[in-house]
Design goal:
Number of helices: 3
Number of domains: 2
Oligomer: single chain
Distance between the termini: 27 Å
Structural class: alpha+beta
Radius of gyration: 20 Å
Order of helices and strands: EEEEHHH
């Protein structure tokens, strides 16, 4: 797709997030699911076609996993490794201790407050 006449958007289905773009020149939507390590792609010429394509792709993926006895791929384990400056580390430890929380619990609580 050309860089001009393109916009990015997000849709969700069954807890999976699809990122897609629309190419005005070709009047075509194309996207992929970002919540899995497996490739799930979808496309359409209208919003309705795009949504239906994503629903079918995810349903097919989940059915395939069920039929093969495989757990659907979900790359987000809930663990994030973050490297910070030692002074930031010290301040986080101090704040967590002051709240009678582990540093992990303190950081998780602060991240949970962020509206993305």
């Amino acid at each position: 797709m050309s860089e001009e006449g393109r916009s990015l958007a997000v849709i969700e289905y069954k807890g999976y997030t699809g990122v897609f773009e629309y190419d005005e020149e070709y009047e075509f939507f194309a996207g992929h699911v970002v919540d899995t390590l497996d490739g799930i792609n979808f496309e359409g010429r209208s919003v309705a076609e795009l949504k239906e394509s994503m629903r079918c792709a995810i349903d097919d993926y989940l059915e395939f996993c069920k039929e093969t006895g495989r757990e659907p791929s979900k790359p987000y384990s809930g663990r994030i490794l973050v490297r910070v400056d030692p002074e930031v580390h010290r301040r986080l430890a101090t704040k967590a201790s002051g709240q009678r929380m582990s540093m992990n619990a303190y950081i998780a609580a602060r991240l949970g407050e962020i509206s993305v």
